[in-house]
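Form P-L/3: holo structure prediction, ligand nicotinamide-adenine-dinucleotide.
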Amino acid sequence: MDNRYQCILVTGGAGFIGSNFIRYVFENTGFEGKIVNIDKLTYAGNLENLADINEKYSDRYVFEWVDICDYDRVEDIFKRYSPDAVVHFAAESHVDRSIHGPKDFINTNVNGTFNLIEAARKFWQNRFEYTRFHHISTDEVYGSLGDTGYFYETTPYDPRSPYSASKAASDHLVMSYYHTYGLNVVITNCSNNYGPYQFPEKLIPLMILNMLDEKPLPVYGDGKNIRDWLYVEDHCSGIWAVLNRGKTGEKYNIGGENEWHNIDLVNKLCEIVAEKLGKPKDYFKRLITFVQDRPGHDRRYAINCDKIKNELGWRQSVTFEEGLNITVEWYLNNKKWVQNIKTGKYLEWLEINYKKR
Ligand code: NAD
Ligand code: DAU
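OUTPUT (holo model):
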C-alpha cells in the first residue's frame, strides 16, 4: 500500500481534478495522513465538490482560502502545516479563456507555481529525500500532432496557446528546481479528463447541459480535432502512483489511449443522453451547430503512456463507454450542483462561510 506521506498539501483542490483527487485519496488508497487544500476559489473552484469529504474526514481534511500568487500566505501554510508532499493542481485551465485574457494564466500558472516551489525549497531544505513536489501538467505542452505519432516524455515542448505556454513555463521552472537545487520533483502530463464535477465550460459537460436545455451544441471548426480522453479517477490513480513511487526528477505521461474526433464524441453523447431521457436516438443531434474555430486550435493530441505502465504498473480502469455513462448520469442526478453553477449560487458559499469568521 502506498502510504508515504503524513501531510499532503493539495493546491486547487476545489476544482475538477483536485476535488476528485482528494476524494480518491481518502476513499481509495488507505492514506492515513492529512490533506490541506489551498484554493483561491476562482469561478472554477467550488467547495460543494468536497462537501461530503469535509464532513466525513473533518479530522484529516482542512481547507484554506489561499491565492498561490500571495507568497506570504503560501509560506504561512508551509509553516503551519509542515506538509511533506505538495500536489499542485491550481491553475487557470481553460484554453478559450486564455485566448480572451491571458494575464491570469501567467499570474497563477507561472508566478503562482514559482511561489510554491520557492516556499517548498525554503521549507524543505535538507529534507528533500523525505519530501516531494508533484506538479500536475498537461499534454498540451507538447503542441499539436498530425494524423500519426504520439507524445512521449521526451517530445520537445511546442505550446501554442497562452494556456499551454504558461503550463510549459511552469514545467520548466519545476524541473529547473530539481536540476539546480535537488528539490524532489515529479511532473505528470495528462490528456483530456472527463467525469463528475467538471465545470461546464469544457466540452463534455457543456454538451450535456446544453442538451438538457435544448440549446445549440457548438462544435468548433470542422469538428475533426482529436482529443485523447481519460476518466478523471484514472488520472487520480496515476497521480497517486507517481507521487508515491515515481522516480525523482522524472516526467510521466498519463493518457486514455482513447482518441476521438470531437464531432464523433458529440454524436455519441447525444445518443447516451437521449437514451437516458427516453428520447429517440437522434433527438439531440439536430442541435449540433458548427461554429467559428478556436484560434490556434491544436489538431490532435495522443499520449504514449508506456512509461507509467511499465515502471509503475498503472492502467486505465474505466472504459470510455462506462465513463461517459457514469458522467452523463452524474450530471442528470446532480441538479442542485448544476443549478448552483448556472445561477452563480455556488460562489455565495464564500460569503456565507467567511463572513462568520
Ligand atoms: P479547474 O479549472 O477545474 O480547477 C482549478 C482550481 O485551481 C480551481 O479550484 C481554482 O479555484 C484554483 N485556482 C486557480 N487559480 C488559483 C490561485 N491563484 N491560487 C489558488 N487556487 C487557484 O482545473 P482542472 O481541470 O481541475 O485542472 C487541474 C490541473 O490539471 C491544472 O493544472 C490543469 O492544467 C491540469 N490538467 C487538466 C486537464 C483537464 O483535462 N482538465 C488535463 C491535464 C492536466
Ligand atoms: O489535453 C489536456 C487539456 O484538456 C487540459 O490541459 C485543459 O486544462 C483542458 O481544458 C483540456 O483542453 P481542451 O482545449 O482540449 O478541452 P476543451 O474541453 O476546452 O475542448 C475539447 C475539444 O473540444 C477541443 O478540440 C475544442 C473543442 N470544443 C470545445 C468547446 C468548449 C468545441 O468544439 N466546442 C466547445 O464548445
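COMMENT: Residues 11-12, 14-18, 39-42, 44-45, 67-69, 89-93, 108, 112, 136, 138, 167, 190, 192-193, 199 surround nicotinamide-adenine-dinucleotide (ligand 1) (CB under 6 Å).
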